[in-house]
Amino acid sequence: MKNVTDSFLSLGHRPFAGSFGFNTDILSTNLINLSVVLGVLIFFGKGVCASCLLSDLLDNRKQRILNTIRNSEELRGGAIEQLEKARARLRKVEMEADQFRVNGYSEIERERFNLINSTYKTLEQLENYKNETIQFEQQKTINQVRQRVFQQALQGALGTLNSCLNNELHLRTISANIGLLGSMKEITD
């Protein structure tokens, strides 16, 4: 052990007598460090090839990277396929929405047209009903006026006849008037 320590001390500059120091010469210390590392590797790594280990590690790493890239490409392909399906569904839904919108507008216009026509028909029916009611009431009023005028005329005529006629003439006039009234009643009914 004394030789190893001496070799460390001999490579650097010599310390003063009786003192302890470090070797600061970089070239000589790196050689010593490399020789120690190689010695440890050789001693503990008997039968293991360092380049083989490194090659295996790099190959494994390369395979993992390639597998990751392959998986990413597959996922990307699946995502693109799903995106295209989603776009196709979107186009289909947009077309259906446009069709519903067009059908909705035409249905609204058709309903509006039907409502307007129905309203006109209802107004026309109401107008006809109003006119029929007015005509009926006018006819009823005219008939009532005719009856009153006729009754008043008849009463006046009867009063005149009663004062001027005798019994026999009176009975014939009454019979004739009754016949006239019967025929007028048939005409008005």
TrEMBL record:
Bilayer disposition of the protein: Single-pass membrane protein
Main location: membrane
Keywords for this protein: ATP synthesis, CF(0), Chloroplast, Coiled coil, Hydrogen ion transport, Ion transport, Membrane, Plastid, Thylakoid, Transmembrane, Transmembrane helix, Transport
Coiled-coil intervals, chain numbering: 76-103
Cellular component per GO, a single term: proton-transporting ATP synthase complex
A GO term, aspect molecular function: proton-transporting ATP synthase activity, rotational mechanism
Annotated transmembrane regions: 31-54
Top-level lineage group: Eukaryota
Record carries keyword Disulfide bond: no
InterPro entries noted in UniProt: ATP_synth_b/b'su_bac/chlpt
Subcellular location as annotated: Membrane; Plastid, Chloroplast thylakoid membrane
Function statement: Component of the F(0) channel, it forms part of the peripheral stalk, linking F(1) to F(0).
Miscellaneous field: In plastids the F-type ATPase is also known as CF(1)CF(0).
Family indicated by similarity: Belongs to the ATPase B chain family.
Description of how the protein assembles with itself and partners: F-type ATPases have 2 components, F(1) - the catalytic core - and F(0) - the membrane proton channel. F(1) has five subunits: alpha(3), beta(3), gamma(1), delta(1), epsilon(1). F(0) has four main subunits: a(1), b(1), b'(1) and c(10-14). The alpha and beta chains form an alternating ring which encloses part of the gamma chain. F(1) is attached to F(0) by a central stalk formed by the gamma and epsilon chains, while a peripheral stalk is formed by the delta, b and b' chains.
Protein name from the UniProt record: ATP synthase subunit b, chloroplastic
